[in-house]
């Protein structure tokens, strides 16, 4: 799998015994968008945010297509410390999954999918090692927090995003241009957004979209 970060192609290496991602990996889309504020030191992890939306690991059986939007049930979260920054990983399951009714909290994942949580910690600990970087660390000694804690994390990072998109906090190099947030000073017309898209090549726009977080 390959994606773009900091205007460069970035590959997700295989880390034995894992091959690529071991879940559907994504983020929370617009409407409930989140942002890990790099100016805010998290009271639980002791580290600032990583300047990204929080990440989602869907443990359902369906392999989703790139860009697919699904409705999920929150089960818990893992507090990754990635190069000194807080990088929450929220464990969820697709509500359309045949087994979704059996999962209500993180302990259900441990009970019904033995070894999956341990594999998740192992994956996140070592996935940057092939790039010559050290192993990642975790808050809470790598223990997963439960559903209620995860939902509180989603809510708090959503508040950070609302401050960002309403210009109540510094956006830094992030481009917060959007067409759908009515009270945002970054809001533009559909015509302006279309002109941005047409002004660059498809690959350049993909790089810009991912690295700058244009919320359309």
UniProtKB/TrEMBL annotation:
It is an enzyme of class 3 (hydrolase). One of its GO terms (biological process) is phosphate-containing compound metabolic process. It comes from the Eukaryota. InterPro entries: Pyrophosphatase (IPR008162), Pyrophosphatase_sf (IPR036649). GO terms for molecular function: inorganic diphosphate phosphatase activity; magnesium ion binding. Pfam families: Pyrophosphatase (PF00719). Its cofactor is Mg(2+). Keywords: Hydrolase, Magnesium, Metal-binding. Belongs to the PPase family. This is inorganic diphosphatase. It comes from Oryzias sinensis.
């Amino acid at each position: 799998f390959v994606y773009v970060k900091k205007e460069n192609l970035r590959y997700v290496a295989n880390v034995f015994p894992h091959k690529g991602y071991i879940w559907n990996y994504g983020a929370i889309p617009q409407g409930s968008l989140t942002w890990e504020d790099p100016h805010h030191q998290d009271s639980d992890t002791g580290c600032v945010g990583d300047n990204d939306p929080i990440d989602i690991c869907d443990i359902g059986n369906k392999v989703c297509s790139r860009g697919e939007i699904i409705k999920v049930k929150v089960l818990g979260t893992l507090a990754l410390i990635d190069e000194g920054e807080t990088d929450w990983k929220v464990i969820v399951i697709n509500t359309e999954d045949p087994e979704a009714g059996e999962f209500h909290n993180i302990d259900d994942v441990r009970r019904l999918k033995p070894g999956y949580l341990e594999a998740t910690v192992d994956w996140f600990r070592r996935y940057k090692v092939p790039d010559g970087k050290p192993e990642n660390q975790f808050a809470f000694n790598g223990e997963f927090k439960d559903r209620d804690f995860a939902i509180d994390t989603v809510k708090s990072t959503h508040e950070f995003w609302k401050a960002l998109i309403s210009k109540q906090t510094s956006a830094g190099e992030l481009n917060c241009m959007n067409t759908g947030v009515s009270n945002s000073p970054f809001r533009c017309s559909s015509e302006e957004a279309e002109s941005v898209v047409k002004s660059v090549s498809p690959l350049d726009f993909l790089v810009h979209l991912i690295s700058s977080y244009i919320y359309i």
